[in-house]
């Protein structure tokens, strides 16, 4: 077994987590996967194979579902799995297994688990592993490997998946002895679910799975150097509170780390206590209610004008679990030039990575927010309170003048924004919405109101087309009593729609809205704006030739297929899908091909150059902000 060390655990700057701090989080919600101490005395060791030890470890860790596909090297694990209490869902492609594990984890907060064989099975997991890494999702990927004597010989279906995934995992293991399997699994789940969450890969050679061993539980964790800092430094918190109560144009810049920490209630208390405006990134939608009067919306490339300019003209940015991503900052050297920055993150490698922090705060977002509330209350008790009246007057004026909206297509085709808006209104705030990547993703982030946490899932950092269908499947498995809508484009849908066969056979009644504009929509938008309307290789043929026919395809995959082509039928089509709860449903919404996502900050440009519509920039007085 490859032992984790401070160096391997921090194999990239992003995962430099060896800073001294308190012991790993003991909050039950975040370490539910960590083995518990025995009540009286450990049971006698059980004689099993390595594969049996693997399956028993999964059971002991409380795993209820694994998404995977069997194959030669992992096949020994599938025999004890046959009799296990762990449900195995047979997917149609390993990429689907990985995204399903991610969707399950994002919807439930628990560790998602996927399994694949060696070689191509393992490499098909690379994209969802990278996706989970970018979005800090707790996933454990278990892969088979060729037998130990064959490693390094270019054996059949051999791939160095440990080396391949080194840059895109929080940590990974190559198990060398069957006796180590319980410890490795326990450590993998602990690493995935604590600190900054992320994917962990466990690679197990076939002969290790076949070897006789004993199973005992719980094992002892041995993770030298892994001590996530959860509680922030008091001095930094006090300085942050001082700035928050003395600035004139502050903004709370909220990222996905707030959701990962379960800190949404604290965020609301902090915002209402201070009166500071809030922006939530694409990964944080739902962390703060969209309808709250202090919410300016989403910042960034396709954010609201008020959110983009609120950050741009702030004199203080309090970043909570956010990483100053390029899609938020635009051209970095022109981002928020007059703002002091309080940057709070559990990962010290993020602080100062893109934007210098005036007050760096390392800690778990829940603890940071709770301690900020106490420090701000102390400042207020001492008579120090910020006057934000002028700031709010300016921001409210921006919201009034530049609300999110869209124009109906001039050619009479169905508006995609209207479809998504009505879908959100009919399905309501309790549904889970899972988006693919592209224009439909941005419209779903803009025109559905997210009032509750963990109701919006998407591929934010990696931007993975094909994410929606399998992730929706995983979310529905994790939340079987919740309505789950996948919102996909006709390009994304054709990458992973085979998992609808899995849904049909496994009784997973997801609902999929295909926003079918006949094109790779976001690419076409860029070709319209920046490439002189030269539409090179973006027409998918789903309009012109109806290849494929999505209704027939849905039916062939065991789903109910519906089609909607005009605004008058949108509501009744969505309502019909909502009534079907015993099978997956696919709606082919045939929409216009020329709709665009606005507002927009073009890649590589300053947020000051935000466009409200094609060729239209918001008009601001020189002294307005």
Automatic annotation (TrEMBL):
Native source species: Micromonospora costi
Keywords tagged on the record: Amino-acid biosynthesis, Branched-chain amino acid biosynthesis, FAD, Flavoprotein, Magnesium, Metal-binding, Thiamine pyrophosphate, Transferase
Domain Thiamine pyrophosphate enzyme TPP-binding: 436-589
GO biological process, any: L-valine biosynthetic process
Cofactor field: thiamine diphosphate; Mg(2+)
Domain Thiamine pyrophosphate enzyme N-terminal TPP-binding: 50-162
PROSITE patterns with a match to the protein in the record: TPP_ENZYMES
Low complexity biased stretches: 18-39
Positions of the UniProt region annotated as Disordered: 1-48
Free-text comment on the cofactor: Binds 1 thiamine pyrophosphate per subunit. Binds 1 Mg(2+) ion per subunit.
Catalysed conversion reaction: 2 pyruvate + H(+) = (2S)-2-acetolactate + CO2
Domain Thiamine pyrophosphate enzyme central: 237-372
Name of the protein in question: Acetolactate synthase
EC number: 2.2.1.6
Organism taxonomic ancestry: Bacteria, Bacillati, Actinomycetota, Actinomycetes, Micromonosporales
One Gene Ontology cellular component: acetolactate synthase complex
Family affiliation: Belongs to the TPP enzyme family.
Listed pathway(s): Amino-acid biosynthesis; L-valine biosynthesis; L-valine from pyruvate: step 1/4; Amino-acid biosynthesis; L-isoleucine biosynthesis; L-isoleucine from 2-oxobutanoate: step 1/4
Gene Ontology molecular function: any one: acetolactate synthase activity
